[in-house]
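Thread title: Can someone regenerate the structure for this chain?

I was given the following input by a collaborator and told the matching structure tokens would be attached. They weren't. Posting the sequence so someone can regenerate them.
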Amino acid sequence: MIRIIIQYSVLKTLIIVFVLLVLSNQNNDMLYGNETGKNLNETSEDAINIIFTGEENGYLEPCGCSEKELGGLSKRHSLINLLREKDANWILLSLGDIPGKVGRQDEIKMETALKALGRMGYAAHNIGEKDISMGLDLLGYLSQISSVDFVSSNIVNPGPQILRIKPYIVKEIKIKGATRKVGILGIVSPELIDNGYQKIEVVDPIESLEPLISKLIDKTDLLILLSHAEIGDSIKIAENYPEFDLIISGHGIDEPGLHIAKVKDTYVIPVGEKGKYLGTITMQPEFSRTDEDRPSTNSNLPSVEIISLDERFGDSTEIKMLLKIYQQRLRDEELLTQVFKTELPSNLSFIGNDDCAACHNKIFKHWKETGHASAYETLVKAEHEYDPECIECHVIGLNYFTGFETIESTPELKGVGCESCHGPGSAHKETQSKDYGKIDAVDCTTCHENEHSPSFEFNEYWQQIIHPLEEK
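Best answer:
Regenerated them for you:
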């Protein structure tokens, strides 16, 4: 892991790397479309700089099982600090959807993430449908204590004493001695909301935006919309409201650099998912909207970058401490003991690795030398052994009755054991059936999926764990 040291030589090296990557066009980590202007690293004092992220979907940090994973709040903070070394004039915006699921762990995640956004200096967090799914009580509580403004232009506020949200905010930026104003609005698509269990009214964005735009158009120099909607819906909004200079969007898009669009003078730019990317755009309005003969804001072509949060960026110490506190809260609340469990079929049960060793001793001894056997210890080393989401792929049967519970009560089920791949072994222990436990490459992808194991290749990985022949 490369750590960023704020020294001139290192900073200069990173800038050169950024430029070379752009010029070589080797990947989509940094993208400049045909409409983009000068390099972000050439920002000037007369520019308005925007940083945008969102749709973490429960990923505060990569799982850590692979060196090639992208994302994480601590890497994001390091990059933001690097950008601020070059130019302190940034407006930070969050598109929404911090949690990924519903449950106590994601409640703690959401609170932790909002604290991190506050420390990074975010101006606004747009409310997404997964934020809403956490419930009005939690969302209201977090809106009251967070230093980041909650924004939504199409959620009907049930009352400021319950949910502290604003239909828009206006940020003031000093440029060449003059004050420039940036209007920031936010919407969530009603089509994404499950009205069956949430008591929040969401109205049509086209209807809700019109009066707000009329109110802000002559009072701001830039208008930005945080559009928590499918990219096609955001483009329709741009077509209806050309007053927007920028729309941040892209719900459900994994590679945001491939979906940047321009509708007349409005840029529509997605953020990606799972916190893997950070987007920036630099715009240089030279006149206020009230100035006579003011040219279009976009006459100065903006510079757009979609930056992947990879190993180039170290971990922010401040955010790492927040994440450590998050892990401690999971332990203190004993969330491992609260994991929802289901029954195994046909009265099967897990028996543990030692029982398998009684008949398959040669295979067992080989397994003990593989990474699967020490999978639990890797979590202990990373201090994630009390995290239910991590534990699931590092023990046997966490989500089933008779499966792993805690290291104290079920030590025989730690690690990626025989039954992690072959299934519960109670019936096989009794019958020695030859039909037990047949698997193929697809079974491996339960844990070795693209997000957690992006370099997984079955044939290559299988060679590391292939069983020796059984002794007769």
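The longest strand covers residues 178-188.
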